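Take a minute with the sequence and fold tokens given here and flag any structure token that looks odd. Thanks in advance.
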Amino acid sequence: MSPKNVVFKKISKDKSVGVYMGKRDFVDRVDSVDPVDGVILIDPEQLRGKKAYVTLSCVFRYGRDDDAEVLGISFRKEIYISTRQVYPALQDKEQCILTKVQEKLLRKLGDNAYPFFFEFPDNLPCSVGLQPAPKDVGKHCAVEFEVKAFCAESQDAKVRKRSSVGLMIRKVQYAPEKLGPAPSVETTRDFLMSDKPLHLEASLEKQTYYHGEPINVRVKINNQSNKNVRNIILSVEQNANVVLYCNDNYMKVVATEDSGHSVDSGAKLEKVYTLLPLLANNRERRGIALDGKLKHEDTNLASSSIIKEGVQKEVLGIMVSYRVVVKLIVGGMMGSSEVGVELPFQLMHPKPDAVKESEAEEEMVFEEFKRTYLKGMPEDEDEGNANIEENV
């Protein structure tokens, strides 16, 4: 069989405008971001002299919309919006610089199809959302991106829901090609009435781990004190800092290992422990940060945030970081105490293989572009009709 390229499409309820896009994820490489491109298909009969527009927007939502109505406080902030007129076309299609997918779509869809193109500013956040509790309804705290097509008399005129269609997309980051040094840390603790100290070392194999990859933590303990280490507890902590609105911090343990191991006075221990941070083990927990959500099955724990130098953190919505915490529970005559260290690391997706340009000329499959919602979250009223078409 020949290779297939999925093209996502969505049509407004009145069939006046439809959007076709070759991908949903757009990569932020820190120094540059993938442009957003696609094709708008219009029906001149349905437009009846109106114009067709396409908008790229970035919205930060903090709290549910119904809370905003009750409290009289705006929980929705528009970080960025850019609108283009696509019909009547302001530029000859023959003069546009098109991608391979756009070229093929224009050939397949005919004379009523028009290309669009957006470039992201370099100071926009990536797509991140905080997981709601199972019984929560409505919109959750998130940074979201949307491509919206609509027809109206003018750009600022009131838009009928039936004449518009919105497609959620994601701005994502992948692991950098140049990786930093593997984290390593050590500490020495002196105790009252003990001539010698307790020494703890912990290290990781590398700085960046991929989603779904086990994290091996090497722990070395040299206990020359007169106290006993009663237990060794390891965990992966996710810190989500909501910097845009209120500077809230959400610290969640997303993986843990309660080893039960002990190290007596005068003894040593060297052991490798394995932690596996996965969303699958945290699906019921409110406040866990997730990568931008398009489908329930392809959501994962949020990737670490990488900031371009010179960009203010306050505009980046939700900042995410991770660390491994190694904690020793030390017993004594007067009760227990703790000795701990932290190992910051990055959790990200590997950079995918580049798609060869020749593959864009192979068979295309048009797929429904419709968001799958969390349990208890109703669909938006303006969700347009979308059907899966045959291969073209």
